[in-house]
Design brief:
Blueprint: E1 17-23, E2 27-34, E3 49-56, E4 59-63, E5 66-70, E6 75-78, E7 84-87, E8 94-101
Antiparallel strand pairs: 1-2, 2-8, 3-6, 3-8, 4-5, 4-7
Length: 115
């Protein structure tokens, strides 16, 4: 058993970005915050499935070039190989939860680095 409190952890970029609550041994999961105008950056995973659930804010979720509006309560599941990005197009933080299933911390690539 492992217990954490999100208040004790930092976002990767200070006041935004991912905040991992658990890393491995079988999956990654945490919370993520995008400030207005921030983006995740287009990327994909070769073996990892990723799920996002948004709790606050608004934005755009892009999968394989197709854009979807984000509102609180929306969930997206992205399969390995699907390019994806998140953009906060609103005027308040865009908050969500993410889960990456399998724990492969180096399984991330951008379309430019694809073989």
């Amino acid at each position: 058993m492992e217990k954490v409190n999100a208040c004790d952890l930092d976002y990767r970029h200070g006041d935004s970005g991912p905040k991992y609550l658990f890393r491995g041994p079988t999956l990654d999961w945490g919370i993520i915050r995008f400030l207005p105008g921030e983006t995740l950056g287009v990327h994909f995973h070769e073996e990892v499935e990723e799920t996002f659930y948004f709790t606050r804010g608004s934005g755009t979720f892009t999968v394989n070039g197709v854009e979807y509006d984000i509102t609180p309560g929306d969930a997206f599941r992205v399969e390995p190989g699907e390019t994806h990005d998140v953009l906060n197009s609103g005027d308040e933080p865009l908050d969500g939860v993410f889960i990456k299933d399998r724990y492969l911390p180096d399984d991330k690539a951008t379309p430019e680095t694809e073989k």
